[in-house]
Amino acid sequence: MSQAEPQEEPLAPDEEALLLEALACALRPKEIDASLNDRLIEAALASDDPFAPASVEELRESARLREALEQGTPHADVDALRALQLAFKPDDASAELLARALSGDAKPAGPAPTEPPPLRSKTTVIYAAFGGSGVVLAFAAMFALLVGTPESPAPVTALVKPHSTLSLFSEPFETADTTARIDRIASARGRELRDNRYAAWGVK
Amino acid sequence: MTACSRQERDDCGGQERVIDPVLLAFLSQARSAHHVADQQETAGDLAAALRALQGLSQTARPQGGPPEVNEVLADTRARIAELLSRGGRFDQAEAEIKAGLESARAPSYYRGHLFEVRGLVEERREKALRAKGRNEEARQARERSLSAYEEAMKLQADVIRGAVRALPSAPAP
Fold this sequence. Notes:
Chain A is mainly alpha-helical. Helices cover 55% and strands 0% of the residues of chain A. Chain A binds chain B through residues 38, 41-42, 44-45, 51, 153-166, 169-173, 175, 178-179, 181-183, 185-186, 189-190, 192-193, 196-197, 199-201, and chain B through 1-5, 8-9, 12, 16-21, 23-25, 27-28, 30-32, 34-35, 37-38, 64, 66-68, 71-72, 75-76, 78-79, 82, 108-110, 112-113, 116-117, 156, 159, 163.
């Protein structure tokens, strides 16, 4: 972080820690609590219809964002979106930018530093680039290195289909254990639904 | 789902059905119903427990008859039957068991459990009839109970044997 430009505030340690944790969770999602999973599903299904027509405000905001992406007008979310776009569809300019970031030659946007940065490892350069406009480099580098180019979405035949739950149980049932069995079934199918979603998005 | 990824809905219809939010919504509903029933049972309110479970068996289900739905319903009906028999509603309990057996036609722990509950229901019926001095009817209930328990044991044994056969064989020494 000591390499950040004086006028570009690096991320605070706690903010940086949160960002790294979020990236790690996106890369290696962990099991979530079964009851939390249920609440998330219920909240999603109980929320406003995701397929409803866009509101006037939503249309206005999407137009602003489109204009910012196409014409470069200011918008708070443009940098992050461009980073994601470059990570998944790198062009020649982004490939060069990424290569420079990995080699330690990347420079954050703004005036040139008054003294040359010392030699550092690739890892240190990426973390140091979290400050200021280096967030773009960080996102692109992390996604390209860790997530890579997503494969084509999985065909329907590769997705998990509904199937018997018998494989979840290895002994005769007790009536008193009915709730536990239903819990296990719902949890197992919840995991498979997540797997299907990831496969449909082309993410391993 | 990928064939539907360009569509707005996850439901791919009957041709290429995959595990989707509709199925999960049903399973989540089932889960909640059983947990509510647990709490009501603990509180001693069997009527409320029954309402929670019977609501599930009467609710809309995902199309296409996914195996998970049939099996959850079979298990739910077994529990409903057990609760009904506690209140002396033996004929209603038997109706639930018959409906559950329609959902679990293949030999499985689900089917075996339904027969076991039938055995329990008839056992309770026998006791109730004897208490009223209706000994001949009680004897018939006892026979049905024994027959149901035997069928349950046979089914469970078949399932266990099938599971053992399905295990990969150990390498020869």
